[in-house]
Each structure stands twice: as structure tokens, then as C-alpha cells.
Amino acid sequence: MKILIAEDERITRRNLERQLAKLGHEVIAAEDGLEAFDLLQAHDVSLLITDWEMPRMNGLDLLRKVRELDKGQYTYVILLTSKSEKQYVIEGMDAGADDFLSKPFDRNELNARLRAGIRVVELQRHLAQRNNELTNAHRAMKKDLAAAVDYVMSLIPDSNLDPATFSWRYIPSADLGGDTFGFHRVTDDRVALYLVDVTGHGLDSALLSVSIINMLRSGALPATDFRDPGAVLHALNERFQGSEQGGKLFTIWYGVIDIPSSTLKWAGGGHPDALLFDKNSSSPTLLPSTGLIMGVLRDQEYETLTRPLLPGSRIFMYSDGVYEVTQSNGKIWSQRELVDYIGTLDLESPNVMDSILDHVRELRGSNVLEDDFTIVQAHYADAPK
Q1: CA distance 306 to 255
Q2: Helix %, strand %, coil % for the chain, to 5?
């Protein structure tokens, strides 16, 4: 190990150099604190033995400068002194000394204190190495997460599926969230829209959510009529049982707009009820989610519900993170309050989504939300002629 000695007494300095060299250490010597500080900056020194009283810069001042120096590694310091009174020990410790060695020093005591110092230095090096490995692993994980976020965002489709147009706000509470949504044509004259909320946050929740969305988009559920929401939920429940997904469950609201008949079919599994606002109405119709949360039990039947869909109607799907908000006063904002708030908005405005998000952040008293915030609006125009 490379050791720096700061000692103005030539005999003591030479004696220390000889003893340390016999122990196999590489030794650098300085005659005062100022020279020692210059050498410390120029060399990779892990252990410093310094005298207390020295010209130009004494041992305490050297200690303080060493502790202010950012070398990226710890320097263990043994203070060499003839001062043994308690107040001097406290003063030396406050300045940054790790240990003390009395003058004149005993060779066996020097060896023992060096061994203790070397153990600390090696431990510090090991910790620094582990921290560096963790930092590199964290960087790699952040890079992978960023790529995963980009992929999740790339799954969001175009906003126009004539005669329906879509707008949304998707704000994950973590780097990756368990919420995902989508909409696509099931047939030329039917549009599916859906929102999935997987329990938890992070990569595992996002991966399950993406798997579900991809299965819906690709139609990869065997023997399933994707025009029938209840049949779709039944198939998804069979395919994604929580016991086979690391305990992850999920909720879903899935609807299908039938363009020729201007009707909406939907089914829900444990999900918040969607809202339907007829044109020029501030009072919504609830589109209830009547089924059990997904992934709990097999062989569950999910009811398909149907109602007319008038031109100009607006459908709102959302996750529970939009309304289960702890307000700055400690109270939880309710689903009923969310529904009432949306009813006060000008739904023709292009700023509806931002108004809801801004209001939730204001209630929370922070831009950082507790849960994933996902809300989707589907505006149904008149069926194309």
C-alpha cells in the first residue's frame, strides 16, 4: 500500500520510512504539511501518517484540507503526536483523524494500527467498487426502462378512427406504470376501445399490461369473437390468471362501437365505470363494469351490455388513479366527485383532458401523483355516409 508520511523531525521520519518499507509498503515522505498536501494530490495515497506540530502547515490543518479534498476514495489518517490529553484527542478527531500514534512510537503498536487502517481502506475500496457496479447496473436499468417506456408509448394508436376520435392523458406514477389503453378497428364497421390497469407499478406490471394490449390488438385469443366484449373478457381472464402472472391481477373496461347500428357494447372486469355524455348533456350515463377483477378465478362469465350511441356522444374511460387522489387536506377525492367535475366542463373544448389533469394535480398539491393517471375520451361523430 502507498503510504504518505508528514513529519518534520528527520530521525522520526527516517525511522518511520524504514519500518514501513520493511512491512512491504511504498512510502512517500514530506517534511511539513504543505509539502504533504501537494504530494497527496499528486499520488494515489490511501493512508497518511502525519505529525501534529510541523512548520508551514501543521497536522490539524493538513487533516482538514485532506477531508475537504474530493479524491474519489477515502484517505485513512493516523495522527502522530506526543499529546495524550483528552482535549487534544477530541480536537484531532474533530479535524478528521482516524487513529492516533504516540511519540516516540512503538514498532508493534505501529504495525497494529497500520493493520487496522489497512482493513478500513480495503473495506472502503470494496464498498466503492460495489457502489460503482450498482451505479453501472442502475444506469443500464434506466436505459432499459427508457426503451420500455418508448415502446409502451409507441403502442398508443392514432387518434382518428372515423367516425370516432380519441384524446387522452397518460401519466405513469413511476418510470413504468400498470395502465395501458388502446383502440382499433375490429372490423371495417366496428371500433374497439379499452383500458387496462394492472396492479402495482414498474417493469413487471408494464410487461403484463403490454401483453394484454398486444393480444387485443392482434386478435390472438383463440375462438374469441372480438365484437363481443363479454367473450373477450372471459378469454382474457382464462389466459392471464394471477397465479401464473406473479400474483398480478388487472382490471379492464372493453367496449365496441357498432357503426351501422350506432350502438355501444361493453363489459368490465373490476374496472371503474366508464361515462357516456350525450351531446349537449352535462349528466352522464354510467357504463358499469359488472364483472369480477381479472385473474382471480377461472370460468368467470362477463356480461355484455348494450345501449344506443347518439351522434356527438362522448365516452370517458379512466383508471382509479384519476380519482383516488389524496388531497392536500388529507381527504380522498371520490369517483362521484370526478364525475361531477367532468360534468362542469365544456366538453366541446380541446382542453378537457388538460383541465382534468390540472384539477387533480391542484387537489393533490403536487405534480407528482400517487398512482398512474390515465383517462381516454372517445368522441363519436355521425356515422359516415
Answers
A1: 10
A2: 40, 25, 35
Instruction: For strands 164-171 and 160-161, give the pairing.
Output: antiparallel
385, pLDDT greater than 50: no
pLDDT band at 285 (very low <50, low <70, confident <90, very high): very high
pLDDT at 88: 78
CA pair distance 372, 176, nearest whole angstrom? 9
CB atoms closer than 10 angstroms to residue 172: 23
Residue 355: which region, alpha, beta or left (left: phi > 0; alpha: psi -120 to 50)? alpha
Domains along the chain with CATH numbers: 2-129 (3.40.50.2300), 157-380 (3.60.40.10)
pTM of the entire predicted model: 0.68
pLDDT at 248 over 50: yes
Which ranges in the chain belong to alpha helices (H)? 10-22, 33-42, 59-68, 86-95, 107-154, 203-218, 229-239, 335-343, 352-364
Per the listing, cell 352522464 goes with 284
Residues with Cβ within 8 Å of 297's Cβ and at least 6 positions away in sequence, in order, are none
Q: Check pLDDT > 80 for residue 338.
A: yes
- Helices 203-218 and 107-154 meet at what angle, rounded to 10? 20
CA–CA dist 257, 167 (Å, integer): 16
